[in-house]
């Protein structure tokens, strides 16, 4: 008796939830999609990758620097790491590309290795090329410098 | 044995050396000319037929490995629809060089017959060696096949990215480097590059 009441209560709850889900307006279902789920919208025009080769300012000191050039077809696998053709220590002379930072040579116990640490091998895990695209979602990130400045002005 | 062979050769020489009894000089000259045209035409037709992508990917070794890898690269699909086929890069366009390469390719027929790379594993195991052959060839002929389309004299550095312009206007312009020195693996996947200069 008790079990069946419990089960029916769960069923009722589930049904009411599904009713709630169905009543969500279309424009809130998937904000980036901007179309009902059963409609295939025309995709936006593909954006061009920034290929300026000009370093971009980091948003915070630990941020992996973004890639200021195209990386189409760059092979990064067990056999070869295409990025390292320019960014390896002994390639930077002729390529004038920034060398991968020393942290990439450290294992998890902070010992320096002679070569890239396996855990830092796959560049695109952290580094990404950038698009010159309009932001789909507003970003309210505040630079630490601005925060500190705001704090010091507050004190005064 | 040797004497027998010698006698045979002597007989052939006598037949070839004697003036024709049954055929006129005109027939022989014109006939020879026509036969020559047919032979030459046939030869070139076959040469052209073996110089097409469809011929190259007629073997599964080429179709399932290198041809698949080519398809995602800019030399296969791009904004203007100009594409390179296998022989554009792998066979010299000049006649003498082409014949030389075709003669070398008899080794590839041998490989096909004996299944040197007839599985993916065998191909992967040989990838470095095969790639090195192509790098050596392009290094030796100053990347001739690249330059058939990418002519240095007509490169507009202002239309290139800064990085590319910097490299092309120095190392490439001075002849110190050739295309293949930097542009390895542009149309196919790279093998294990351990120990290759620049990697």
UniProtKB/TrEMBL annotation, chain A:
<dbReference type="GO" id="GO:0046872">
    <property type="term" value="F:metal ion binding"/>
</dbReference>
<feature type="binding site" description="covalent">
    <location>
        <position position="123"/>
    </location>
    <ligand>
        <name>heme c 2</name>
    </ligand>
</feature>
<keyword id="KW-0574">Periplasm</keyword>
<dbReference type="GO" id="GO:0042597">
    <property type="term" value="C:periplasmic space"/>
</dbReference>
<keyword id="KW-0813">Transport</keyword>
<dbReference type="GO" id="GO:0009061">
    <property type="term" value="P:anaerobic respiration"/>
</dbReference>
<feature type="binding site" description="axial binding residue">
    <location>
        <position position="69"/>
    </location>
    <ligand>
        <name>heme c 1</name>
    </ligand>
</feature>
<dbReference type="Pfam" id="PF03892">
    <property type="entry name" value="NapB"/>
</dbReference>
<feature type="binding site" description="axial binding residue">
    <location>
        <position position="87"/>
    </location>
    <ligand>
        <name>heme c 1</name>
    </ligand>
</feature>
<feature type="signal peptide">
    <location>
        <begin position="1"/>
        <end position="21"/>
    </location>
</feature>
<feature type="binding site" description="covalent">
    <location>
        <position position="83"/>
    </location>
    <ligand>
        <name>heme c 1</name>
    </ligand>
</feature>
<feature type="binding site" description="covalent">
    <location>
        <position position="86"/>
    </location>
    <ligand>
        <name>heme c 1</name>
    </ligand>
</feature>
<keyword id="KW-0732">Signal</keyword>
<keyword id="KW-0408">Iron</keyword>
<comment type="similarity">
    <text>Belongs to the NapB family.</text>
</comment>
<dbReference type="InterPro" id="IPR036280">
    <property type="entry name" value="Multihaem_cyt_sf"/>
</dbReference>
<feature type="binding site" description="axial binding residue">
    <location>
        <position position="104"/>
    </location>
    <ligand>
        <name>heme c 2</name>
    </ligand>
</feature>
<feature type="binding site" description="axial binding residue">
    <location>
        <position position="127"/>
    </location>
    <ligand>
        <name>heme c 2</name>
    </ligand>
</feature>
<protein>
    <recommendedName>
        <fullName>Periplasmic nitrate reductase, electron transfer subunit</fullName>
    </recommendedName>
</protein>
<dbReference type="InterPro" id="IPR005591">
    <property type="entry name" value="NapB"/>
</dbReference>
<feature type="binding site" description="covalent">
    <location>
        <position position="126"/>
    </location>
    <ligand>
        <name>heme c 2</name>
    </ligand>
</feature>
<comment type="subunit">
    <text>Component of the periplasmic nitrate reductase NapAB complex composed of NapA and NapB.</text>
</comment>
<keyword id="KW-0479">Metal-binding</keyword>
<keyword id="KW-0349">Heme</keyword>
<comment type="function">
    <text>Electron transfer subunit of the periplasmic nitrate reductase complex NapAB. Receives electrons from the membrane-anchored tetraheme c-type NapC protein and transfers these to NapA subunit, thus allowing electron flow between membrane and periplasm. Essential for periplasmic nitrate reduction with nitrate as the terminal electron acceptor.</text>
</comment>
<keyword id="KW-0249">Electron transport</keyword>
């Amino acid at each position: 008796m008790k079990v069946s009441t419990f089960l029916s209560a769960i069923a009722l709850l589930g049904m009411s939830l599904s009713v709630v889900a169905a009543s969500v307006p279309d424009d809130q279902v998937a904000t980036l999609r901007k179309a009902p789920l059963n409609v295939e919208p025309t995709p936006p025009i593909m954006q061009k990758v920034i290929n300026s080769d000009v370093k971009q300012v980091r948003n915070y000191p630990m941020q992996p620097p973004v890639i200021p050039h195209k990386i189409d077809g760059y092979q990064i696998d067990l056999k070869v790491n295409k990025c390292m053709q320019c960014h390896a220590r002994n390639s930077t002379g002729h390529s004038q590309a920034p060398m991968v930072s020393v942290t990439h040579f450290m294992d998890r116990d902070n010992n320096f290795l002679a070569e890239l640490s396996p855990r830092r091998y796959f560049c695109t895990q952290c580094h990404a090329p950038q698009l010159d695209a309009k932001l789909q979602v507003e970003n309210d990130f505040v630079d630490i410098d601005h925060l500190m400045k705001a704090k010091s002005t507050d004190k005064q | 044995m040797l004497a027998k062979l010698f006698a045979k050769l002597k007989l052939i020489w006598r037949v070839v050396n004697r003036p024709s009894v049954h055929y006129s000089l005109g027939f022989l000259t014109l006939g020879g000319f026509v036969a020559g045209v047919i032979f030459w035409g046939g030869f070139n037709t076959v040469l052209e037929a073996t110089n097409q992508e469809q011929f190259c990917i007629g073997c599964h070794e080429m179709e399932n490995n290198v041809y698949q890898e080519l398809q995602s690269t800019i030399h296969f699909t791009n904004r203007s629809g100009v594409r390179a086929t296998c022989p554009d890069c792998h066979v010299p366009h000049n006649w003498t060089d082409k014949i030389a390469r075709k003669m070398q390719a008899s080794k590839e027929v041998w490989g096909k017959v004996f299944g040197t790379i007839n599985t993916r594993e065998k191909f992967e195991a040989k990838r470095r060696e095969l790639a090195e052959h192509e790098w050596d060839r392009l290094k030796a002929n100053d990347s001739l096949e690249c330059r058939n389309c990418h002519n240095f004299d007509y490169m507009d550095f202002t239309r290139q990215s800064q990085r590319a312009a910097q490299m092309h206007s120095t190392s490439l312009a001075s002849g110190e480097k050739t295309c293949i020195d930097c542009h390895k693996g542009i149309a196919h996947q790279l093998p294990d590059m351990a120990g290759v200069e620049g990697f």
